[in-house]
Design a protein that fits this description.
Rossmann fold; 8-stranded mixed beta sheet; AB_hydrolase_fold; 8 strands; alpha/beta; about 270 residues; about 20% strand
């Protein structure tokens, strides 16, 4: 698996892993995670496709700007990286925060998004209550650092029954969170708080769309993900997952992704004929 770092613009550089050959699939992780969230998905998927798993701005080994940034800025980072990699079209799969970035990319740079997936994510904007929660989180991190915040967040990420059964995975997720830089976490919280509603993208774009939700998700309930249906929309409910099916039910998520990518391949062939 090749590891790379690419300077996108000014002082922003993105770290990513690039493995496999074939049609490109981009994986974007959630808040306070890294590309390593996809550890069980990337290996198998790269047997069939070229898989590019990226650390979003302010996360993992990627840089963060001192200036405030938006979800649209994060999407622009991805667009510029794909341009540097000479990738004209890709399937983009975004988990949680990565899903918000995916929707912004699909709206602002639609030519590069052949298909997309939201995995435990939503097109809705933050409610007033959620915005208040973001502000409190920013303040807490400012006063206490990352540890207490991540300890609390990690409990919400997994389905209740998995917290005890998957202690090693919970610790793995916590460790990634602890290592998130303070200004990266705060910048992302600010960006998520101020994001716009993009439900219309899910409802109006006619490209293949994958929607994945967890039955036990305490952060984004399935009804917030499954807002529409149609022949081009693939919906999958993960029965034993909370917010982290790539770790809680990786084999089942992999099946859903591979099935969806098979549909994308078929869709592409039909459009070329």
């Amino acid at each position: 698996m090749a590891e790379y770092e690419s300077t996108i613009h000014n002082d922003i550089s993105l770290y990513y892993e690039d493995k496999g050959v074939g049609k490109p699939v981009v994986l974007l992780h959630g808040f306070c995670g890294t590309h390593a969230y996809w550890k069980y998905i990337m290996e198998e998927l790269s047997s069939y496709y070229r898989v590019i798993a990226i650390d979003l701005r302010g996360h993992g080994k990627s840089a963060v700007s001192e200036e405030p940034f938006t979800i649209d800025d994060m999407a622009q980072d991805i667009a510029q990286l794909l341009e540097q990699l000479e990738i004209e079209k890709a399937t983009v799969l975004g988990h949680s925060l990565g899903g918000y970035v995916t929707l912004a990319l699909a709206e602002n740079t639609p030519s590069v998004v052949e298909a997309f997936g939201l995995i435990h994510s939503t097109g809705a904007e933050d409610s007033a209550e959620a915005k208040e929660g973001r502000d409190k989180a920013i303040e807490r991190i400012n006063e206490e650092g990352m540890k207490g915040f991540i300890e609390e967040l990690s409990v919400k990420l997994f389905a209740e029954e998995n917290l005890e059964e998957m202690t090693n995975e919970v610790e793995f997720v916590k460790k990634l969170g602890f290592n998130t830089r303070v200004n990266g976490a705060q910048g992302a919280l600010h960006a998520m708080k101020n994001r716009e509603n993009r439900e219309h993208i899910i409802k109006e774009l006619n490209c293949p769309i994958l929607l994945v939700a967890g039955k036990g998700d305490k952060i984004i309930q399935p009804e917030k993900t499954f807002i529409t249906e149609g022949p081009h929309i693939h919906r999958t409910l993960m029965e034993k997952s909370g917010h982290m099916s790539m770790i809680e039910e990786p084999n089942e998520l992999l099946d859903a992704i591979i099935g969806f990518l098979g549909y994308v391949d078929k869709h592409r062939r039909n459009n070329h004929n």
